[in-house]
Amino acid sequence: MLELIGESTPVFIGVVFAITLMIGSFLNVVIYRLPIMMEHEWREQAEELLASQPEHKLPDGRFDLVVPRSRCPSCGSLITAWQNIPVLSYLFLKGRCANCKASISARYPLVELMTAALAAICAWHFGPGWEAMLAIVLTLVLVSITMIDADTQLIPDSIVLPLMWLGLAMSLWHPMPGANTLFISPSAAIAGSLAGYLSLWSIFWIFKIITGRDGMGYGDFKLLAALGAWLGWQQLPMIIMMSAVVGVVINVVMIVTRGKDRSIPIPFGPYLAAAGWITMLWGETIRNAYIDMMF
Questions:
Q1: Are residues 260 and 290 in the same domain?
Q2: What does pTM read for this prediction?
Q3: Which pLDDT does position 77 carry in this prediction?
Q4: How many folded domains does the chain comprise?
Q5: Which domain does 53 fall in, by range?
Q6: Does 212 share its domain with 82?
Q7: Among 60, 84, 118, where does a domain finish?
Q8: Are 61 and 68 in contact, with CB atoms under 8 Å apart?
Q9: Same domain flag for 64 and 204
Q10: Does 106 lie in the same domain as 135?
Q11: Same domain, yes or no, for 53 and 114?
Q12: Cβ(173)–Cβ(127) under 8 Å?
């Protein structure tokens, strides 16, 4: 079976899609619970200074990414194993709780499908091998970061810092036979990490000095540092430019069509994550096409 997966790209893509569809279900748990765990930890550390109660009160007993079991937020009934089957259970239940019939957000199956689809694209692009597996790992982490930042405007250190260190560690295996995008040289990874952090850090302080306001969060610096560690300093200009352009376009559209308040902070992490993922797969193709068009 393992030989078939390693020798057949279609089989490899199918296996990746099936496995990451299930992982996508766990990512929904991470996206929901991790910010609550972070808030509770901060409140505990600052309880002598803060008189207010946390927005999310943790249940009694252990609360982490594994325990307690998932429950319906409306009636509190436990979600059984078959009700946790990615996508299919949502369709079978017609988007409602099996007990109280309360509506279940379509976001859960959409995150599962998006995770599996993006991972399958990585499997197709890189083919069977270590480069594809690490690209899928990066994809899973970027999905989590994107959704958490979109919800809370936070990029957890517990996710982004290990991502950066993994990128630096991968460079120790340079050159990896058959790898073309990942497993860059240690010098490129270290320079990418430093340049990624310092570039946005510099923009942050220039903006703050001029306007007196914060233009972005420190999590964005760390995310670009992680992408620099994975893809090298050479890819950073494309990531920054692509994320800025996409961010401006999307937010202008939201302001015009939905009347979005311009004073509401805009999470930049999702745009960095999307630009980094696209650059990982098609960075060289985009760069060559741009050079051909300009010259």
A1: yes
A2: 0.88
A3: 78
A4: 2
A5: 1-118
A6: no
A7: 118
A8: yes
A9: no
A10: no
A11: yes
A12: no
pLDDT tens, 183-209?
Answer: 999 999 999 999 999 999 998 888 888
Residue 124 lies in a domain: no
CA-based Rg of the chain, rounded to a whole angstrom?
21
What are the tens digits of pLDDT across the range 144-196? Answer: 999 999 999 999 999 999 999 999 999 999 988 888 889 999 999 999 999 99
* Per-residue model confidence as pLDDT tens digits over 222-277: 999 999 999 999 999 999 999 988 887 777 777 777 666 656 667 889 999 999 99
Residue 290 within any structural domain of the chain: yes
